Automatic annotation (TrEMBL):
Belongs to the glutamine synthetase family. Residues 1-297 form the GS catalytic domain. Signal peptide: none annotated. InterPro entries: Gln_synth/guanido_kin_cat_dom, Gln_synth_cat_dom. One of its GO terms (molecular function) is glutamine synthetase activity. This is Type-1 glutamine synthetase 1-like. Gene3D superfamilies: Glutamine synthetase/guanido kinase, catalytic domain (3.30.590.10). Coiled coil: none annotated. SMART domains: Gln-synt_C (SM01230). The keyword Ligase applies. Keywords: Ligase. It comes from the Eukaryota. It comes from Prunus avium (Cherry).
Length: 297
């Protein structure tokens, strides 16, 4: 069986959108029937690649909605003789696919991640800074949850907007953690942060749990946020820590990081570490096995 991309049009191509419109006319109403909000849909840079932005909601519902959305897309495309896949790298010479997540913190209906007025140094509240500092500090171990298979690390490379270095930045799309100031937010303030080191092979419930656990650790220990990186991190290679280049490295980072035991639970961590080790062994012994991922994810 030879699989070829749906099309080869450039980023935001209207012709690509038009060509796939018969699919979207089924996908979007199906998602609306499940009370899932679709905020944006456009052709991405990869061949046959589209990006869909789902509306924000509480973490548990967001993870559920992501699962439902993928099931709807897979079912409708299959009905039309197409295969939809969310794997990080379906072909090693093609652009990858991520599952970028935007996180904000809310209390009593107020966004407490965002700063107020001109008193905030980075546009975040103290709570926001400490939470983000925790996520940044534990990011190498978080990758064992959010980038869970060897193929995930074929995507996380410098100069590909995937975030390959341990840093954060303001609207810096090469940073793995990016604070965002979308339209409608007062200039100088940020409403949320984006984490790019997350892909379609990750269990979204476990991935979000790891991010929350890291952020809570940042709040408990009042961690400080370093200065933002506003240039391409690869130009600071000698100064910045490279994030894990393989699942083996992120698994080692998780083994050395004790912050997750309390919040994730020791039994679940043992299971996760065992599964990651099995994935490493399997793909080490079956070099072409990644090609089957297109059917699994």
């Amino acid at each position: 069986e030879e699989l070829v991309p749906f099309d080869s049009t450039p980023y935001c191509s209207t012709s690509s959108y038009d060509a796939a419109s018969y699919l979207f006319h089924e996908v979007i109403p199906a998602l609306h029937s499940l009370n899932i909000t679709v905020e944006q849909l456009h052709a991405e840079s990869g061949k046959g690649q589209f990006e869909m932005v789902l509306g924000h909601t509480a973490c548990m519902h967001a993870a559920d909605n992501l699962i439902y959305t993928r099931e709807v897309i897979r079912a409708i495309t299959r009905k039309h003789g197409l295969l939809a896949t969310f794997i990080p790298k379906y072909a090693l010479d093609e652009i990858g696919s991520g599952a970028h997540v935007h996180i904000s913190l809310w209390q009593n209906g107020q966004n407490v991640f965002m700063g107020s007025g001109g008193s905030s140094r980075h546009g975040m509240s103290k709570v926001g800074e400490e939470f983000l500092a925790g996520v940044l500090h534990h990011l190498p171990a978080i990758l064992a949850f959010t980038a869970p298979i060897p193929n995930s690390y074929d995507r996380i490379q410098p100069n590909t907007w995937t975030g390959a270095y341990k840093c954060w930045g303001k609207e810096n799309r090469e940073a793995p953690l990016r604070t965002a100031c979308p339209p409608g937010i007062q200039h100088g303030l940020v409403s949320n942060f984006e984490i790019k080191s997350f892909d379609g092979c990750a269990n979204p419930h476990l991935g979000l749990a790891a991010i929350l656990a890291a952020g809570i650790d940042g709040l408990r220990n009042h961690l400080s946020l370093p200065e933002p990186v506003d240039t391409n991190p690869s130009s600071l290679d000698a100064e910045l820590q490279r994030l894990p280049k393989s699942l083996s490295e992120s698994l080692e980072a998780l083994k050395e990081d004790n912050a997750f035991t309390d919040l994730i639970g020791e039994k679940l961590l043992v299971a996760i570490k065992g599964i990651r080790k099995a994935e490493i062994d399997y793909y080490s012994n079956h070099k072409d096995a990644y090609k089957q991922l297109i059917y699994r994810y």
